[in-house]
Specification:
Layout (H helix, E strand, L loop, with lengths): L3 H10 L4 H19 L2 E4 L1 H16 L11 E5 L26 H8 L3 E6 L33 H8 L5 E6 L5 H6 L3 E4 L19 E6 L2 H11 L29 E5 L8 H16 L3 E5 L7 H16 L17 H12 L2 H14 L5 H24 L2 E5 L15 H5 L6 H6 L3 E8 L5 E7 L5 H15 L1
Parallel strand pairs: 2-3, 2-4, 7-8, 7-9
Antiparallel strand pairs: 1-3, 4-6, 5-6, 5-10, 9-11, 10-11
Bound molecules: glutamine.
Length: about 475
């Protein structure tokens, strides 16, 4: 499938119809969805209606928008009016939201064509998409491996050429980690750059929506279309969407890029080798590389696994058998809620709710949740100090290439470690991008991560583009 950039140009110029592009996308979904389990729901009718309208508008001489006729996949924790939204949980099975997430409205306004909802780890809790109540998603590059998670379905949709664009959400790494494992570009924007209205909340102070694409330019186009202030999200940044596509080819000449030891140590040799080659590529493009150590990053994982479950335990209280999806009728109201939540939530979600409730309980709050918040502040301060010495930071996205199914499911700690390099940016609320660079074990792609201070998305895309070009 062509890039979004190309498709939008062709559709807008009339040299290709949005309906024919959609047909290609649907054909690719039909060909491999059963094998890979990427989409939980395909909205053929709605997509056809949207594409037909776009073609009519083009015929009418109208400007359809920057994503004219581009099919896009939505992680199934994003609400789309009337379309089943499950968060890959039995507790939401059958629920159809009565409204669009702001990102969906913005996609439609930009001329994009949402084609369906993609699989994820239940409520975005996981790093392999094995925690889905509807079965795991397979990595299109090697179906015996995981696609990463929790936005594994969105990553697989793009990697399998089902759609050129997909949206995911990233609370601790869930866009960047599957992007790395599927050979894609994935960005977690600055906290507040993209409205969270209509994203089913996991950990509200960490959650951000962002793009998964094959190219840096496509990622910039997609983010530009969905970013910018939204009155429906009180945490949304006040200004309109920044100009991103225009800066993709700005390069890195004169930029100081900090290679962070803690974002490389512990990664497999193949991943480390790719980061080292990325350093060379950036240097050749005119950047100065500074070696840095940020010891606070080592504490990120522990802090995250208290803060995220604490917020989740509160956010998931709304799934009570009364307002959404599943209800298991039993005895009085308390018994009904208990039976509903017991039947509706999977094992990992229950583990998080228990962990979070414990961390927030009287007597433990200061020792766990309070302590984790202090580590979060230390992390934010450590980033600020690092950005005195470097404009952007560099490291690995993940410790390894895509791993085998089942290799981490019996050990939650091993699974949690998949996000050790991505979590610091969530704690600080700052942006980070994973860009495919090199290959590793079994010929699978390795991802390199670039991190920047708040609102540095344009610089991150420019640096990622340098790596994309060097990667060939
Ligand atoms: N893997 C991490 C977790 O399980 C991050 C998930 C995410 O970013 N949604 O919480």
């Amino acid at each position: 499938m062509n890039s979004a950039e190309q498709i939008a140009r062709d559709v807008q110029s009339g040299s290709m119809s949005a309906t024919s592009v959609l047909e290609m996308s649907l054909d690719a979904i039909r060909a491999r969805n059963e094998e890979l389990n990427v989409f939980l729901y395909v909205d053929e009718e709605g997509a056809l209606e949207a594409a037909t309208k776009i073609d009519a508008r083009v015929a009418n001489g109208e400007n359809v928008g920057p994503l004219a006729g581009v099919p896009v996949a939505l992680k199934d924790n994003l609400c789309q009016d009337g379309i089943p939204t499950t968060c890959s949980s039995k507790i939401l099975e059958g629920w159809r939201p009565p409204y669009n997430a702001t990102v969906v409205d913005r996609l439609l306004a930009a001329g994009a064509v949402p084609v369906g909802k993609t699989n994820l780890d239940e409520f975005a809790m996981g790093s392999s998409t094995e925690n889905s109540a509807f079965g795991p998603t397979r990595n299109p590059l090697n179906p015996s491996r995981v696609p990463g998670g929790s936005s594994g379905g969105s990553a697989a949709a793009v990697a399998a050429d089902m759609t050129p664009l997909a949206l995911g959400s990233d609370t601790g790494g869930s866009i960047r980690q599957p992007a790395a494992l599927c050979g894609l570009v994935g960005m977690k924007p600055s906290y507040g750059l993209v409205s969270r209205y209509g994203l089913v909340a996991f950990a509200s102070s960490l959650d951000q929506i962002g793009p998964l694409t094959k190219s840096v330019t496509d990622a910039a186009m997609l983010l530009e279309a969905i970013a910018g202030h939204d009155v429906l999200d009180s945490t949304s940044l006040p200004e309109p969407a920044p100009s991103l596509v225009a800066h993709v080819n700005d390069g890195v000449a004169g930029k100081r890029i900090g290679l962070v030891r803690e974002l490389v140590d512990g990664a497999d040799e193949d991943v480390v080798a790719s980061v080292e080659r990325a350093v060379e590529a950036l240097r050749e493009a005119g950047a100065t590389i500074v070696e840095l150590s940020v010891p606070e990053f080592r504490l990120g994982l522990s802090a995250y696994y208290l803060i995220a479950p604490a917020e989740a335990s509160s956010n998931l209280a709304r799934f009570d058998g009364v307002r959404y999806g599943l209800r298991v009728n039993e005895g009085d109201v308390t018994a009904m809620m208990e039976a509903t939540r017991t039947a509706g939530f999977g094992e990992e979600v229950k583990r998080r709710i228990m962990l979070g409730t414990y961390a927030l309980s009287a007597g433990y709050y200061d020792a766990y949740y309070g302590q984790a918040l202090k580590v979060r502040t230390l992390t934010i301060d450590a980033f600020a100090r690092a950005y005195e010495q470097a404009d952007l930071l560099l490291g690995a996205t993940t410790p390894s290439v895509a791993f085998e199914f089942g290799s981490k499911t019996s050990n939650p700690m091993a699974m949690y470690l998949s996000d050790v390099f991505t979590i610091p940016s969530n704690l600080s609320g700052e942006p980070a991008i994973s860009v495919p660079f090199g290959t590793g074990e079994a010929g699978l792609p390795t991802g390199v991560q670039l991190l920047g201070p708040g609102r540095s998305e344009a610089q991150l895309f420019a640096a990622a583009r340098v790596l994309e070009i060097a990667n060939g």
